[in-house]
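// run 5 | inverse folding | seed 20
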């Protein structure tokens, strides 16, 4: 940034207006815009847990939103990662699914460890309910009554 300011100073024959203006534009483009983008991502992204699936809403910027729905049947594990020995109360969640090597990552999650524990509890209770349902009615082995296909 200093080199660019010096080059603009030499090019504009010493006009302080051009130097100050270029420094402000560079500051906005390289500092404020990425900070604003990270704030939007942090503020408007969320996780919704229902009885059968987890919905990840990832607001990347003002006009971009990714919505991912994952069935609780497909979860293998949820891993929470924090930065700087958990000094700051946010982190990243990694969702590992049973099918293939697919992994979904969600960043900037407040209290990531607690969220991962809550999701693991919901997945465990879902699997317990499914197991009890299959044990009580063996015809539901594939998740649907015998003779019915979905």
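// decoded
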């Amino acid at each position: 940034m200093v080199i660019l300011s010096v080059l603009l100073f030499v090019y504009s024959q010493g006009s302080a207006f051009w130097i100050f203006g270029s420094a402000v534009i560079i500051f906005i483009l390289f500092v404020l815009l990425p900070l604003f983008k990270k704030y939007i991502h942090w503020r408007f992204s969320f996780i919704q847990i229902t009885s059968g699936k987890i919905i990840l809403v990832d607001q990347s910027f003002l006009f971009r939103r990714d919505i991912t729905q994952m069935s609780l049947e497909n979860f293998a594990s949820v891993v929470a990662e924090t930065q700087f020995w958990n000094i700051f109360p946010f982190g990243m969640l990694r969702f590992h699914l049973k099918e293939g090597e697919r992994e979904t990552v969600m960043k900037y999650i407040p209290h990531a460890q607690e969220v991962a524990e809550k999701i693991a509890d919901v997945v465990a209770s879902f699997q317990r309910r499914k197991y009890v349902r299959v044990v009580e009615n063996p015809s539901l082995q594939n998740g649907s009554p015998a003779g019915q296909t979905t």
